[in-house]
Structure formats: structure tokens, C-alpha cells
């Protein structure tokens, strides 16, 4: 059988609007009610393989299979927190596609994925450790070695023609990420269509998720343009510095005045949320890190869960930190989230008690 056609070349953004995004895109800090789902997450999910033991990929004879995808990670954590969640993606009709769908559904997520008979499910391999910020193979053994096989994948064929708009709009929140924008021209066109102003548009959540390797031959300014079209935006301070040259949370807000809520995460220093009413900063928690993978996706899940509950901004940031702490203290992409009663109790601590907290592996299973 002939190999499937390659996806379109480097995506090119459509011309930006000639007027202010703030006058066009409605502020929506609290999502509307009445939708079939609380959150719809759309994006790529791949079969993921991690070495069964320490060491480089080249030295690992045995790998543990799982799944990996920023948007599906967030979807699974939100479902485990008790929310109605749908994941939209595209996988092959191969065994890896079967595995991806089964794993996501096992967390209680409604799976609305198209099976592509002509393209494979993407696959990636990674070791433990922090992700490299250069996009090159790391020489530092403390950094993760990551190898992707996603060119021509089923997910890269997502486009306005292959994704059901009604399914995408079936939640109170539609959660997207910048990873999708880099996969193909069709994927970028899809994100521009989903973020366009329209009647009944869900609250749009956008996690920048800047990946240096995906944007080597593309303009990361596309991510800035997409973020300006959304209601709630998550970005890391390091991402904003690398992609846009913005040094510091206030500088990021100057670049992104349009979103109703802008969350800038700065690692162990904490996270800041900016709104039209002002800014709020919450220090990060002290944790015993077992694995840094998935902390950003978990933060988004914790913040979105608190947003759905209508909690105050400061409390939303604390729930984001607690969800991230659960990910940091548990190996793998998905950690057991804290029970709502425990998370609520910890989020309600005064500043002194919050600053004294130190979370270690297993803390999420303790009783409130």
C-alpha cells in the first residue's frame, strides 16, 4: 500500500484582524452553563514509551507503554475530578490508536476521535527529567531525551474539514493548545476557525505549550496571535521569553492584553493571573519531585476545574498549584488528583500555612 500523503507544509497564519481583538472577542471569565459537557479538549495524543529503568533511550531494552498528549492529559484529570469531559482527536486504525482511545476512555472521558485508515497514530519515546529548552538532543543526563515519530500522523490531518464543529462546541469550555497549531497547515487553520468570534462560542482556553522543536522553521508569533483570540490563556514565563522575548509576567500581559484571564506560570516561584480588574500572584508549593512530566497540563486542569466552580481567582491559582503538585510527586503523565475536599481545605489555608506546606509522594491519597 502506498504511504499516506505528507501533511501540508509549514503553517502560515491568516491575516490578523485590522481592529482590536478586545472589541471583537467577548470577555468570558466564567463559562456559560447548559452545555452537554463541562470541557471539550481538542488535540493530538500519541502512544508514549518510557524506559523501564534509568538510562538513555539507546541503553533501554524494555519500555513501558502509555499515552501522551497535553490536551488529553488535561481532559483525563478533569474527568477524574468529577467533570463531564470530551476529548476530540484523530488516531490511526492501528493498535496504538486502539490503545490511545481505550486509555483516555478509562478515565471517564467521552472520546470523539476519528479513526484515519490512511495515517498512523503518532508515537514518541522519552526518558525522565525536565524537557530541554533548545529542541536539540540533550547532553545533560538530567534532561529528558525525547524522540517523536509524528510526521504524516493521523493527528496532523486534523482540519476544519475533518473535525465536527458541533462536537467542538459542545462544552462550556473548549481547551486548545499551541502544539496543535504546529502539526500542519490544516491543524493551524482549524485553530483559527475554532477561535474565531461567533454566537454561542464556548469559553476558549488556550495553553501556549511552546515546543522549540516544533517551531524551528515556523514563526512562534502565530501562538501570540492565537492567544489573543482566546478568553483564558496559560503560558510559562520561560515559554514567553523563548517564543516572544517577553521577560516577566507584566511584559507578557503587555503582549497579551486581550484575554479576560492570562495565567503566567514561573516554576518554583509561583504563578500570576492577570485580569482587567488587576493581577494576583500565588507562590508555588514546596514539593518532593518524582517526575516533572505533566505538571503544566495538571495546572491547567486544576485551574479550569476551579473556574467551572466559579471560585475566586486566587483560589483558582491555588488549585492549579495543587494539581501540578500531584503531577510532580507522581511518576508518569497522569497523577491521582487530590480529592476535592482535601484540595479545598489546602486551598483555603492562610498565606503562612500555604507557604509552610511541603508535599511528598502519596499526599493526594491522604484524608482531608
Automatic annotation (TrEMBL):
Q: Which organism is it from?
A: Streptomyces radiopugnans
The answer to whether the entry has keyword Transferase is yes
Which residue windows are coiled coil?
none
Ranges of biased composition (kind: Pro residues): 1-17
Positions of the UniProt region annotated as Disordered? 1-29
Q: What is this protein called?
A: 2-dehydro-3-deoxygluconokinase
> What's this protein's family per the entry?
Belongs to the carbohydrate kinase PfkB family.
CDD domains listed in its UniProt record: KdgK (cd01166)
Q: Which PANTHER family match?
A: 2-DEHYDRO-3-DEOXYGLUCONOKINASE_2-DEHYDRO-3-DEOXYGALACTONOKINASE, SUGAR KINASE
Q: Quote the Gene3D superfamilies the UniProt record gives.
A: 3.40.1190.20
Give one GO term, molecular function aspect. Answer: kinase activity
Q: Does the keyword Ligase apply?
A: no
Domain Carbohydrate kinase PfkB, residue spans: 38-335
- List, alphabetically, the InterPro entries matched: Carb_kinase_PfkB-like, Carboh/pur_kinase_PfkB_CS, PfkB_dom, Ribokinase-like
Q: Which Pfam families match?
A: PfkB
Keyword field: Kinase, Transferase
